[in-house]
Write a structure and sequence with these properties.
This protein has 196 residues and is an alpha+beta fold. The protein has helices at 4-12, 43-56, 85-97, 106-123, 168-175, 183-195, and strands at 18-23, 62-67, 77-78, 83-84, 99-100, 103-105, 131-136, 142-147, 150-153, 156-161. Strands 5-6-8-9-10 form a five-stranded antiparallel sheet. The longest helix has 18 residues, at 106-123. It is globular and about 50 Å long.
């Protein structure tokens, strides 16, 4: 688990136009078994994350938060899909359903995720309701664009995938951007170490 204060400090150092924070948490504990109990999204955790989102928006024009479930709910696994329910529909949105023309738009992804999770939950008589918040400038959040047959991230054009489809590797890179340093920064650090 990532301490809240560590997340706050990490985001304070990020300079960008748009920040998107996705929380697929409050899952059942895999160590205790695959039961449906416990680990609900608490009011305190949601409040802390919202406070981080608001403070992060001071360094970015727009900060978006997406949660896999609402307060007093939990996020369910979908064993047949080898993902949580939220993650399954999130990946569908990023790969295909969130595209409008040549742009991958966060709000379209969000709409697909909410509808998909709510359908899944209703069919199984469960309660999981994804929710989101946006701070700062309100408008379309463009995550990627297609140009000349390539998929380009808004700030990572040099890593554009030469394909009309978003690959799983590209999605994993995008989803992990907030968890590790960008590749080019890592390469620069490694080069400096070798020079010493």
């Amino acid at each position: 688990a990532l301490p809240i204060e560590s997340l706050r400090k990490a985001l304070a150092g990020v300079e960008c136009c748009q920040q998107v924070l996705i929380f697929d948490c409050c899952r059942n504990d895999p160590v205790r078994g695959k039961g449906d109990g416990g680990n609900l999204l608490t009011k305190g955790f949601a409040r802390d994350i919202e406070a981080i989102g608001k403070s992060a928006s001071a360094g970015a024009a727009t900060t978006c938060l997406m949660f896999s479930c609402s307060q007093d709910e939990r996020a369910y696994e979908w064993p047949n899909k080898e993902h949580g329910v939220f993650t399954h529909f999130l990946l569908e949105g990023l790969r295909e359903k969130g595209w409008r023309g040549d742009q991958l738009i966060l709000q379209e992804v969000e709409t697909h995720v909410k509808a998909g999770v709510e359908r899944w939950s209703k069919k199984r008589s469960r309660r999981q309701t994804p929710w989101s918040e946006m701070y700062g400038s309100i408008g379309p959040v463009i995550l990627a664009e297609r140009t000349a047959g390539k998929i380009a991230g808004r700030k990572h054009d040099e890593e554009a995938a030469p394909t009309e489809e978003v690959s799983d590797a590209a999605l994993q890179d995008w989803l992990q951007m907030g968890q590790e340093e960008p590749r080019q920064e890592n390469k620069a650090k490694e080069k400096k170490k070798k020079q010493k």
